Amino acid sequence: MSSTLDVPLGWARWRRSWWYHATYYAQTWRGSVASTVLFPIFYLASLGVGVGHLVSAHTGLVQGQTYLHFIAPSLLATTTMQLGEGESLWPVLAAVKWIRSYHAAAATPLEPEDILTGKLAWVVTRAFATGIVYTIVIGSFGALQSWWALTLPFLGALITLAFSAPLVAFAARSQSDGPFTAIYRFAFVPMFLFSATFYPVSAYPGYLRPFVQFVPLYHGVALARAAAFGEGSWGAVTLHLLFLVAMAVAGIAWGRRTMRHRLVD
Amino acid sequence: MIGPILEARELVKRFGELEAVKGVSFTIERGESFGFLGPNGAGKTSTMRMISAVSRPSSGSLTILGLDPSTHGPEIRGRIGVVPQEDTLELELSVRQNLEMFGRYFDLPHAILRERASELLEFAQLSERANDKVDDLSGGMKRRLTIARALINRPELLILDEPTTGLDPQARHLLWERLYRLKREGVTQIITTHYMDEAEQLCDRLVVMDHGSIVAEGPPRELIARHSTREVVELRFGTDSHEELHDRLAPFAQRIEVLPDRILLYVDEGDDTLREIHEVGIVPMSALVRRSSLEDVFLRLTGRTLVD
Amino acid sequence: MLARTLPRFGSRRSLHIFERNFMVYRSQWLMLVSGFFEPLFYLLSIGIGLNHLVGNLHFDGRVVSYATFVAPGMLATSAMNGAVIDSIFNTFFRLKISHAYDAVLSTPLDVIDVALGEVWWALARATAYAASFIVCMVALGDSGSVWVVLCWPAAILTSLTFSCVGLAACTYIRSWQDFDLVALAQLPLFLFSATFFPISLYPAWLGAIVSFSPLYQSAALLRGVALGQFEWIMIMRVAYLLALALVALALATRRFRRILVP
């Protein structure tokens, strides 16, 4: 084999894993496209318009925004988190245990790290596409007030990666899906509800507020709001970004180890 | 009980346009091991599902244990055991739990089930694995457990659909040995298979099925005597010009079959025939003389091989 | 079909399916226990945050806190979701993936026993979950009156309806991808069945459409019971949920038979 082929092989290899995941998704996209477009519309119509009506009658504006506008960006954050979760636990366990499609891939020139990179790259691709749809829906409800809103799809991709990477790593070392339901119910449901998603942090009692800082989704919600409304200090935004990037980097590092351990060792 | 354990007259099973079973009739006596031999898609499994009182015949009459399955389904199923083609075990439960849970479906009390489960674990050589999850068992163990499970209600009739498909030779022989033992204990067995050696080993009597119909019926040796010669010479030439060879070899055999990879000569004395064709200068790459088997009967009756 | 289904509702054979599920899930107790927490989180979240933003509502001539208004709707939703997970997700797995029922049908059990057994199981779980939900409601001060105890049977009725509907729906599912469609049906039910705001907020014609939603009927029933406001229309709501359950069960049994015993 000529050495000219060896140089781009790293990219060429994980690209194949990306392509595999994309092809797999192509068989099944219809239902998920419908839900990607309809879910935010449903949520904003019910909670934003319906509950928003009640909120404006009693409270008026929430942090200077109507309730509809206030919750719209956090919807992008929660959805991209759920995307990272849904794509990472059961599908990965299926691929390393039940169907063993990752074992099949590892028998080709692909290294475990390539499979991981391809998988995460695919999830990020989907998150970005979802982010675009959500940005458009949120915009059409009038909730975007700054050019920074154009960064929303990128923020969505980052949020997904921050959750997906550690979850893929965890799923790759799991023997059964028993703990997954517990993770979903004890980590993701509370995070969805308690990340200042549906009301401002100020609603929490004073002693609880500092703890919200440690909830990963809170940083995603804060970033999405900052981008949509063009508000928030640089310092705070940098902190939120760093938190999510750190999760993603740690998750990838862990995933490279668990994936190699599961597929090769 | 007087009369046969199972009697089928002109059984038909249709799925929409497709007629999977086209009017088969057979009678099975108590204590007998009865086989259904045929390739995949011959209608064996559809027949099995009807005679295990699960699916209803589209037409024809069926009597199992002297009862009509359309009115006495639960009663019949309570007295037979079924080993399906797929294992369908409860993967989340332990080996012992699988047996006990299944027994509960027959309304058997827990105390009796504990006892029977222990006996059956012994019988299936799974006592040491009693508390392991089924998910962790090998294919052969799962198959033995499925058979043990079918025995939990002490059935008078045991129906086995492809009992050894996918097992390695050692696991197959162990299973056969267990089935002999059950036969000695008087359990009537109905077995489907597409392995002729299995059919010859296990069945007192069998029917050959093809395209939803029965094409022959009788004890294995009798079927072979009726439809084939005593011996078969298998010749391989490593060439594709089988047509020309066919004409040259035909005079030496009572019947000749040309397969893609070999030529079969049906004769009474294989060694004599082999010598004769050597004498006229036909030299095969390899030659084998063997006794006729059910495979040959099947080839004769349907023009096709059983496996592949 | 109904006449053939109903007499078996208490048959011993269908109880064996219940026994089987109990045995299988015993090893997954964490999953069962965790189910108790989900509604608690929802109630807490609403109690902490939205309750302040929305304040008190004028509902049917009474002033109630938002949390008190929403809690019965959440109970109805939780009954629906639990039933859907049990009767669509888990039953689909056993019906079409693991073929667990195929083995069962070679025993004296019949297709009807299998379908009813699953309903029994879903109801048993729902009974436990609903009880814990009501305890949470009372503990968090979201109960409108002492009549809240009657939410228990009403929530169980809700579970019965959605279990039967789910069981019927489950037989139409071809692969895992179709669960996107299930979610697509479930979410609008959850969001628009007057669970989060009174039905009077809708224009009249839209309100009329919403009143066909079984989740709306259940939420309205539960809310009326919780607040101790008994009206004749509640009998209609109960009848609607019961009728839907029976029709769905008859359909489910027919579809089960077609799939399992072709």
Give the gist of this structure.
With 265 residues, chain A is an all-alpha fold.
List the helices and strands and how they pair.
The complex is a heterotrimer of chains A (265), B (308) and C (262).
Chain A: H1 9-26, H2 29-58, H3 67-88, H4 90-98, H5 101-106, H6 112-140, H7 152-172, H8 178-193, H9 209-212, H10 216-229, H11 234-263
Helix pairs in contact in A: 1-6, 2-3, 2-6, 3-6, 3-7, 3-10, 6-7, 6-11, 7-10, 7-11, 10-11
Chain B: E1 6-15, E2 18-28, E3 33-37, H1 44-51, E4 59-64, H2 69-77, E5 80-83, H3 95-104, H4 110-123, H5 139-150, E6 157-161, H6 169-184, E7 188-193, H7 196-202, E8 205-210, E9 213-218, H8 220-227, E10 231-236, H9 242-249, E11 255-258, E12 263-267, H10 270-279, E13 286-291, H11 294-302
Parallel strand pairs in B: 3-7, 3-8, 5-6, 6-7
Antiparallel strand pairs in B: 1-2, 1-4, 8-9, 10-12, 10-13, 11-12
Helix pairs in contact in B: 3-4, 8-11
Chain C: H1 2-5, H2 12-26, H3 29-34, H4 37-54, E1 56-59, E2 62-65, H5 66-97, H6 100-104, H7 111-139, H8 151-170, H9 179-192, H10 204-210, H11 214-226, H12 233-260
Antiparallel strand pairs in C: 1-2
Structure notes:
The complex is a heterotrimer of chains A (about 260), B (about 300) and C (about 260). Chain A has about 260 residues and is mostly helical. Chain A has one domain. In chain A, about 75% of the residues lie in helices and about 0% in strands. Chain A contains eleven helices and no strands. Chain A is elongated. Residues about 1-5 of chain A have low confidence and may be disordered. By secondary structure, chain B is of the alpha/beta class. Chain B has two domains: about 5-220, P-loop containing nucleotide triphosphate hydrolases (Rossmann fold); about 230-290, 2-Layer Sandwich (Alpha-Beta Plaits). A six-stranded mixed beta sheet of chain B has the order 5-6-7-3-8-9, sandwiched between helices. In chain B, helix 3 (about 95-105) crosses helix 4 and helix 8 (about 220-225) crosses helix 11. The longest helix of chain B is centred in the middle third of the chain and has 16 residues, at about 170-185. The two termini of chain B are about 40 Å apart. The mean pLDDT of chain B is about 85. With about 260 residues, chain C is mainly α. Chain C has one domain (about 1-260). Chain C has twelve helices and two strands, in the order ααααββαααααααα. A two-stranded antiparallel ribbon of chain C has the order 1-2. In chain C, strand 1 (about 55-60) and strand 2 (about 60-65) form a beta hairpin. In chain C, helix 5 (about 65-95) runs parallel beside helix 8 and helix 11 (about 215-225) crosses helix 12. Chain C starts with a helix and ends with a helix. Classes of the chains: A mainly alpha (about 260), B alpha/beta (about 300), C mainly alpha (about 260). Chains in contact: A-C, B-C. At the A-C interface, helix 2 and helix 8 of A face helix 3, helix 4 and helix 9 of C.
